[in-house]
Amino acid sequence: MTITQYTADAIALLKQLIAVPSVSRSEKDAADVMQRAMESYGFTPSREGNNLWVMSERWDNNRPTLLLNAHIDTVKPVATWSRDPFTPTIEGDRLYGLGSNDCGGGLVALLQVFRALVSAAKDNVPPAQESWRNVNLIYLASCEEEVSGAGGIRAVLPLLPKIDVAIVGEPTGMQPAIAERGLMVIDGVAYGKSGHAARNEGVNAIYEALDDLLFVRDHRFEKVSPLLGPTKMQCTVVNSGTQHNVVPDECRFIIDVRTNEYYTNEEVFAFLQSRMRSQLMARSFHLHSSSIPLEHPLVQRCVAMGMTPFGSPTLSDQALMRFPSFKLGPGESSRSHSADEFVCLSEIENAISTYLKLLA
Q: Rounded to two decimals, what is the model's pTM?
């Protein structure tokens, strides 16, 4: 098959996916569409919940393994869509529809790349080379990415063989995002003692929290990443008090922490506990920052092809991968989670061609 034929199949599949609502934790119908497509290509996919994967033939645990991954779920459509988000619409070079950019384009392009590489390796025709008979390939369409859900890639990775490196098909304008910020959400509470405001009684919990909130505002972490910049934190929610004449006995707040690759979520949390008087509780630690060395052969191949590595501020399933990985996919991150989301047909074709050049 030609690049044009693979592109046509990718676009046809993406149109089917757009027409099936697949908001996070409600991806069954979209997973069914993906399963039928994989089976029509001659594959027998494995399935765990709404996650599907297929592995190359003649598997050998002594070979290095490359994972090709993208997610099938979407966010909920915002109210300002000017068209039906579940009706795939082609206008010129653009395919409109919810999930088309994030990350349907990467999802369908990587499936066609897996299909082409497996077929080429089996038949020993271009783009296969001798090396492709010495590499294991896995294609994984995962769910619950938008909510970092336990039923998504976290449920699948323990079921897969050891992975050496992964390409994640998030929209990056086909430039390699070789580092990604982590995320930690912390709930804080400062305690006081209630009393009558007119008599200046009690201990005001808001004032008890003030020093901690100022520390969050003013602290600067020392280690600055050349790709991601500094680790950042913001207080994004504050709640306290019941009425104007009662001194509040409790002040609750939320801290949003975005780590670079030099800090783990655990060490940032321990540091904050040592410096703040309020009671702190992290909702989770598992969404770590991630990176792949600039010297990695795949990254160097990207550079040789004229691509520019960069650091990504947005979170993806990379945060759950404990092996080298980077994001590379069609579309632009700025279109994600927005009204009238679209991906260009030419971007999908270029992605398939670029992936094959990179991997061949």
A: 0.89
How many helices and strands, by DSSP H and E, does the chain display?
Answer: 8, 20
| Closest-CA residue to 327 (of 356, 302, 297) | 302
Burial class (CB in 10 A: 0-12, 13-18, 19+), 357: exposed
Give the C-alpha separation, 211 to 219, whole Å: 12
The Cα-based distances of 51 to 3, 8, 102, 164 in angstroms read: 27, 24, 17, 20
Give me the residues of the chain with pLDDT under 50, please: 128
d(CA 113, CA 105): 12
Listed in order, strand segments (DSSP E) in 62-149 are 65-71, 89-91, 94-96, 136-142
- Cβ atoms < 10 Å from Cβ of 252: 16
| Residue count of the chain | 360
Query: In the beta sheet, which residues pair with residue 280?
Result: 188
Express each pLDDT in 281-306 by its tens digit: 999 999 999 889 999 999 999 999 99
